[in-house]
Amino acid sequence: MFKRMGIHTAIGLSALVLLLSACSEENVEPQTDVSSDLDSTVQQASAEKSPEVIEAHHGVNQNPTPLDIEREGSDVYINMTAQITDIEIDDDYNYKAWTFNGEAPGPLVVVNEGDTIHFTLENMDPSIPHSMDFHAVHTAPDKGFADVAPNDEGTFVYQASSPGVFMYHCGTDPVLSHIANGMHGVIIVQPDDGYPTDGEVDKEYVIIQNEWYKYNDLENMTNGEPSQVVLSTKALHDEQPNTNGTVGALLDEPLEAKVGDKVRFYINNVGPNEVSSFHVIGTMFDDVYIDGNPANHQEGMQTVGLPASGGAVVEFTVKEPGTYKFVTHQFNHVQKGGVGKLIVTE
Ligand SMILES: [Cu+2]
Which UniProt keywords apply (predicted)? Predict the structure, then answer.
């Protein structure tokens, strides 16, 4: 937001905002200070010329590919791509992301408990292999999650036998590079018997946390701090927003509910490295299903801890109109973008 202002105005405002933010939890707009603005500019300027951009990726920016998913009984046929697509993860900072289907996080996949997944990965990357590791399945990973060569495709079959909110990611070495460069997402396996609170829920959304590092810099990904920590949403129902993991995505496209609604979030922290302390300001979670399994039912939680790859279903009721921000309660990560908002109206 400061990027469109003069630099001196930004310095003055940064100081003021930082002072104010120290006083109030309510003030959780992501604030990028001027030094990290400059870092971003340097990163951006260097990204195109940087040796970190794989030679064969220079000039490659593949259009997003819609998710292709079809069902025949309990057999689900899922076709996805591995592809190189530019994503503007912060104002004027384009990241040449390694992605599934041109989104980061990748597209939301929803199946039913017990479904057999027939998964095909088309690797559109001209230079390096990619793969798919669904946390929702049991398989021998050297076979079921095997690498697919550039310009090739591979098909894998496995069953989604347990309900939950699971991470998926590329599992090709070095895995950290593939995940941190954008190859992650969420698969929801809907429980056969539903959740005991299904009948109470009025609105439901998907929220994903991920973090970004210096462009394709394995050293920084391994030993450094994330440059951005972000929350995104994927459309679970028609007309819902569907965003990438970009700074301010869920401030620019807030979620919505009505007073009295019981709201359900399917949440997952795809990392790759950091944990999430998921919290909605101004309410608490009446019902929580850790990892999205109905057997893991908790009540009355203020904050839900999500390890890297961990998921949950969280439910809360909004009793008054207003703007409810949700954050990872590790506020250094809020400074880097880890905040969104839910607007509640009469
Ligand atoms: Cu990959």
Answer: Copper, Metal-binding, Oxidoreductase, Signal
Could you tell me which of 183, 164, 11, 212 has the C-alpha nearest to residue 80? 183
pTM: 0.87
Cα 218 to middle of ligand 1, angstroms = 14
In this chain, the answer to whether the domains covering 55-190 and 198-345 adopt an identical fold is yes
* CATH fold for domain 55-190: Immunoglobulin-like (2.60.40)
d(CA 25, CA 330): 12
Q: Average pLDDT for residues 307-335, to the nearest whole number?
A: 98
Cα of 177 to ligand 1 centre, how many Å?
Answer: 8
User: What's the CA-to-centroid distance between 128 and ligand 1, angstroms?
Assistant: 8
Residues with CB under 5 A from ligand 1 (ion): 130, 170, 172, 178, 183
Provide the sign of the torsion angle of the four alpha carbons 143, 144, 146, 151, taken in this order: positive
Residue 330 in contact with residue 231, Cβ under 8 Å? no
134 C-alpha to ligand 1 centroid (Å): 13
Distance 83 CA to ligand 1 centre (A): 9
Domain boundaries, the chain: 2-49, 55-190, 198-345
- Alpha carbons 275 and 290: distance in angstroms, whole number: 15
Mean pLDDT over each residue of the chain, to the nearest integer? 89
- Cα–ligand 1 centroid distance for 314 (angstroms): 30
Write out pLDDT tens, residues 107-148.
Answer: 999 999 999 999 999 999 999 999 999 999 999 999 999 999
Rounded distance between C-alpha atoms, residue 105 and residue 266, angstroms:
14
Fold classification of 198-345 (topology level): Immunoglobulin-like (2.60.40)
**Contact in structure between 39 and 22 (CB atoms under 8 Å):** no
Q: How far is the CA of 345 from the centre of ligand 1 (A)?
A: 42
Q: Residue 182 C-alpha to ligand 1 middle, in angstroms? A: 9
Question: CA 150 → CA 128, 141, 305, 344, distances in Å?
Answer: 6, 19, 37, 47
Statement: residue 52 has pLDDT above 80: yes
